[in-house]
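SEQUENCE-TO-STRUCTURE ENTRY
===========================

Backbone structure tokens: a row of integers, each naming the local backbone shape at its residue.

Task: work out the structure tokens from the sequence, keeping to the layout shown below.
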Amino acid sequence: MADIDEFADSLLEEAKRFLEKSKDSKSAAGVAANMHAAVMLAFCSLEAHINAVADDFVARADVTLIEKGLISERDIRYVRGTFELSPALKIWRL
């Protein structure tokens, strides 16, 4: 898990650097390009942090199967008399 945390942190640092570069840009196009890069990297960092937290929750023993399915974006199937997480992707709109 430490690798994903480091990656998320590095994305945030890159976003901050693009924000700084946008302040130093002389043209409107340069400001817009650097701001777009900063916003995109900031959202990537946010998603990486959320995914790291979600992975920690899925690993817990006290999380129900339905919660694990929702957090890990996996479908739950009834197989041979028991419910289990399937490898099939299932995404819910929040």
